[in-house]
Structure to design on (618 residues):
């Protein structure tokens, strides 16, 4: 029996449902039970405005600003600020200001789903479209000495971002609806939107905690980044394995963003993250330096990313292999236009024909651009597109569990693959890496936005359209700005734009253009051991009795510890520990903990973006 859309409530009942303003997970003993509860108690996409013109325009304007700040920050500092929560706050505040200045034009207040829609457009434009410009296209300019044609880079950025959006669709039902992975930024965005739109006395505690978190994190960021009065890193005294703890990266970070993220991710994942940091930075790093594998002043993270990439790739692919029946059903659904939907919720999802049509249109255009504009042979370009889908699976799962999209390691996997297939072809190596970076970033960003919408009861198909429109806005805004900020090769590596990520990507392309032979034998052994450990932990997660599973370290958390300093892992763990202790002592404080965490993330992001803008203009 074909699925039918949910019955539309009476027009007079347009208030958000209580469940859409409170739940952090959807109850249900089985996926079908969770779907039924969501459709009955949470879904409000047919009763509350969502994909409206004003929401799209507002999100487009915010996205244009945030993509500019992230491009500047990436070229200058090698960082990208979270966009989702910042965009939700800016959308709500800017429309509120417009209502005061021109009430006749702005209309009624934004609904929670309109704010969610504006946030999705802005997030897609501000975050998902510019990552490859900072890394891969910067490296292309360093390597070749010239930009690709403007029309080619504009088309390339849009097509690959849109491809990532389509690739993420078959994964949504599994990762967001049924496994209910945290997607911490998406959850924090939903909590922020709820706090902004809750009215009456019930709104005061949430808004108060959101404001306290934002104020504290904003002040700390302003004093640290703006005035330079607080160090970013406070090292621990002592040594380990004959090396100072400071050199190994052990210490406290004054960034409160990690504390907020840890509070949302939970204790098991962050404890695994810290355990991985103790192993890789405390046990392995001193031995790597002692063996002479790295010079005394070498960058350990440049070495440890290889075992980290092996662990993340193995764990993610094994997860999907163990879920092969579920994933296969989702993929088969794309090719069957008249299948019987197992649940009415499926009638609200993006139709399989849309996904097939989008991929069928985008793929030939990408292949043609890769061949004629970037010199990639057509068979290898087709393989790169297929590989990017597999890597999107990894990016989406890792983002869902850890809130960190591993585009760097996945980019290296692509570069390594095409170093073997196209040896000494650095340009093709970079172009195929660009396919991975753009598609993976966009896919993970879509699922994070869909997580926000799922908790708020949004119509998933409309959020998909908002994300797709954001790809258009982001490409149109960020590519001309990239040409403006970086007119030629001499700008990169200068005091104005050090472009560390571009320089590292270019150097990595030179090394990996010869394939595995470009890696030290000890590095290859480390990758093998990391992959084996990740496989064992993944199998233990799935096969051990349920009571024992919670004591198994997360392979994704341990793999991610290889990609960040030990101090960052500690910050996330402390945030999760503080949240767990608070919940244990005061179970009623659950909502306040989550809202405070969202405020910490939003406060640092907003002030950080503001500092970048001020420095760019003055």
């Amino acid at each position: 029996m074909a699925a039918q859309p949910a019955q539309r409530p009476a027009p007079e009942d347009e208030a958000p449902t209580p469940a859409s303003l409170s739940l952090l997970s959807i109850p249900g003993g089985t996926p079908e039970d969770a779907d039924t509860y969501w459709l009955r108690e949470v879904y409000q996409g047919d009763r509350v405005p969502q994909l409206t013109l004003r929401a799209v325009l507002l999100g487009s304007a915010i996205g244009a600003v945030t993509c500019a700040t992230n491009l500047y920050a990436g070229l200058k500092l090698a960082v990208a600020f979270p966009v989702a929560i910042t965009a939700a706050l800016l959308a709500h505040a800017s429309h509120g200001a417009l209502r005061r200045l021109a009430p006749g034009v702005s209309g009624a207040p934004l609904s929670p789903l309109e704010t969610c829609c504006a946030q999705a457009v802005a997030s897609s434009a501000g975050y998902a479209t510019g990552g490859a410009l900072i890394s891969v296209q910067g490296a292309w300019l360093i390597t070749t000495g010239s930009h690709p044609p403007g029309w080619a880079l504009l088309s390339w950025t849009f097509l690959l971002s849109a491809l990532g959006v389509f690739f993420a669709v078959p994964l949504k039902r599994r990762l967001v609806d049924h496994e209910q992975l945290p997607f911490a930024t998406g959850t924090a965005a939903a909590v922020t939107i709820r706090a902004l739109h809750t009215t009456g006395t019930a709104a005061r505690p949430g808004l108060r905690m959101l404001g306290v978190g934002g104020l504290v994190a904003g002040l700390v960021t302003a004093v640290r980044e703006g005035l330079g009065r607080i160090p970013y890193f406070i090292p621990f005294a002592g040594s380990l394995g004959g090396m100072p703890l400071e050199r190994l990266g052990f210490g406290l970070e004054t960034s409160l963003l990690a504390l907020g993220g840890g509070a949302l991710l939970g204790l098991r994942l962050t404890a695994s993250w810290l355990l991985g940091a103790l192993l890789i930075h405390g046990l392995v790093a001193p031995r790597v330096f002692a063996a002479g594998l790295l010079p005394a002043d070498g960058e350990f993270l440049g070495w440890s990313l290889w075992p980290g990439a092996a662990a993340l790739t193995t764990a993610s692919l094994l997860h999907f292999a163990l879920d092969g029946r579920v994933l296969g059903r989702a993929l088969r659904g794309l090719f069957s236009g008249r299948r019987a939907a197992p649940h009415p919720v499926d009638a609200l999802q993006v139709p399989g024909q849309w996904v097939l049509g989008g991929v069928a249109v985008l793929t030939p255009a990408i292949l043609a651009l890769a061949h004629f504009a970037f010199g990639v042979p057509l068979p290898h370009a087709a393989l790169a597109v297929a590989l990017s889908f597999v890597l999107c699976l990894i990016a989406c799962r890792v983002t869902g569990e850890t809130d960190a999209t591993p585009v760097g390691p996945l980019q290296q996997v692509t570069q390594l693959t095409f170093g073997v297939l196209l040896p000494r072809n650095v340009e093709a190596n970079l172009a195929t890496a660009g396919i991975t970076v753009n598609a993976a970033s966009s896919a993970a960003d879509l699922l994070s936005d869909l997580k926000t919408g799922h908790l708020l009861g949004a119509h998933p198909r409309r959020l998909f359209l908002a994300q797709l429109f954001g790809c258009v806005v982001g490409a149109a805004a960020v590519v001309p700005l990239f040409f403006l900020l970086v007119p030629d090769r001499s700008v990169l590596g200068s005091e104005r734009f050090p472009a560390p990520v571009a320089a590292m990507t270019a150097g990595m392309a030179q090394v990996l253009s010869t394939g595995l032979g470009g890696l030290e034998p000890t590095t290859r052994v480390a990758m093998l051991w990391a992959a084996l450990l990740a496989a064992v932990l993944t199998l233990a997660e799935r096969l051990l009795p349920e009571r024992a599973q919670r004591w198994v370290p997360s392979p994704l958390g341990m793999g991610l510890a290889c990609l960040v300093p030990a101090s960052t892992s500690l910050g996330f763990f402390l945030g999760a520990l503080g949240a767990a202790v608070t919940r244990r002592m005061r179970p009623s404080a659950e909502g306040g903990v989550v809202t405070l965490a969202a405020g910490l993330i939003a406060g640092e992001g907003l002030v950080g973006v503001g500092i970048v803008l001020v420095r760019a203009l003055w």
